[in-house]
Design brief:
Helix content: 55-70%
Order of helices and strands: HHHHH
Radius of gyration: 18 Å
Number of helices: 5
């Protein structure tokens, strides 16, 4: 059986830091990339390292929270930032920053889902 057929297809959401599923050392590159997305204390938990799918799940939850934070910051910026004495130009720049961050985080979330699915497919193929 050709195990490469069981992997999720690579899409534009696949992170360039992660090797193609089935290639040499791809799982290690996936774990390394996922570890960079979670707080340091989580990145060293043995159970998350032993089971990369759990690491992917945690990274997905982490990024979903970051998306909520960025959306809240974006939605409240115009009302709350003037009281901090910030100039209108700084406020507008900050709003653009938060909007861009939401888009970037959404892309990262899609990438995490793709990598985690490939890791799950690989685990099933091995069993």
């Amino acid at each position: 059986m050709n195990m490469a057929l069981t992997y999720s297809p690579i899409t534009s959401d696949w992170p360039c830091q992660v090797k193609t599923p089935g290639s040499y050392d791809w799982e290690r590159s996936a774990v390394k990339w996922l570890r960079e997305l979670v707080p340091t204390r989580y990145a060293s938990y043995p159970v998350l390292l032993k089971h990369p799918v759990l690491l992917g799940r945690h990274a997905q939850i982490q990024v979903q929270h970051e998306i909520r934070v960025a959306r809240t910051a974006l939605q409240t910026a115009r009302a709350e930032l003037p009281s901090l004495g910030l100039h209108e130009g700084v406020i507008e720049h900050t709003i653009k920053l938060y909007a861009a961050e939401v888009l970037q985080l959404q892309h990262i979330a899609r990438s995490i889902r793709a990598v985690t699915q490939a890791l799950a497919d690989n685990a099933v193929a091995r069993n």
